[in-house]
Amino acid sequence: MALTKRIKCFKYLVYCYVVLLTVTGCAQIFIGTSLLWGHSGYYGIVQNKLWAPAAILLCLGPITFILCWMGCQATNQRKRCLLGMFTTLLVTCICVQFILCGWSLAMRENLPSSVEIFIDDSFVEFLDKFSRTKVDNLHLWNRMQSQLQCCGVDGPLDYRRLSLPWSCCSRPEHAYESACDTHYKRGCLAVVSEQIKHRLLITAFSAAIIAIFQSLGLFCAVHLTILFGKSDNGYDNNKLSKKRQQQFLPLSIQDKRQDMPSPLSLSPTAPGHRVIKTSATGGQK
């Protein structure tokens, strides 16, 4: 009875743990989607790099939902193997998130040099096209400079010998001022690097915090797996003990049980009469 009560108690704890995992899965999807959406403003300029940590965090969300379903099924059906697999996969996901945290922080430290190479190459192509065709208003650099309120790689001086594009011009303070009387002073390299650093830092801290929350109920899942094993072993031991008790009964009782006729050995011969069939050896005696 004590084992049954403990199993029931830990089952409810695992159910609460599954609810917590569902919340963390929703957080992974929301944070990963937000980070990728923010990265889309300059993904072409940085050559589709530096998005992997946010994408991995996003992919861990659906995986967490699958693990929640697995944990519920294992707990409901008392499947020890499935519950053990649930615990193992969950530990793997937690380790991946801690690795993701370290990777994001390492990427953040090496960020300025790698981003500078991508932005310089992209800006050279933009200048070449701008000097010949003045480019379209929907070009990546025009959109980025307008949205991030920056101009050039290091500042407006990058456009020497050329007129500033419209995206470098800030809004006039007075109605009579022309569109380009004022322009943005800061370069886009510093702004983009700062935003990517900020997003990588959010990815690292989010992965670490979610991993810590997901590890809170591991003890309950592991302990319930052990209790299921003890329950199964106790059931097998009870069956074995009953079988041994039957084997070690006194010989007189075993002989009486063997001599008792089976209900199938009774067959009617005449109305109101029944004859007990005996074995051939008994007849000879």
Automatic annotation (TrEMBL):
<dbReference type="Pfam" id="PF00335">
    <property type="entry name" value="Tetraspanin"/>
</dbReference>
<dbReference type="InterPro" id="IPR008952">
    <property type="entry name" value="Tetraspanin_EC2_sf"/>
</dbReference>
<feature type="transmembrane region" description="Helical">
    <location>
        <begin position="200"/>
        <end position="229"/>
    </location>
</feature>
<keyword id="KW-1133">Transmembrane helix</keyword>
<feature type="transmembrane region" description="Helical">
    <location>
        <begin position="12"/>
        <end position="38"/>
    </location>
</feature>
<feature type="transmembrane region" description="Helical">
    <location>
        <begin position="50"/>
        <end position="70"/>
    </location>
</feature>
<keyword id="KW-0812">Transmembrane</keyword>
<dbReference type="InterPro" id="IPR018499">
    <property type="entry name" value="Tetraspanin/Peripherin"/>
</dbReference>
<feature type="region of interest" description="Disordered">
    <location>
        <begin position="251"/>
        <end position="285"/>
    </location>
</feature>
<keyword id="KW-0472">Membrane</keyword>
<feature type="transmembrane region" description="Helical">
    <location>
        <begin position="82"/>
        <end position="106"/>
    </location>
</feature>
<dbReference type="GO" id="GO:0005886">
    <property type="term" value="C:plasma membrane"/>
</dbReference>
<protein>
    <submittedName>
        <fullName>Tetraspanin</fullName>
    </submittedName>
</protein>
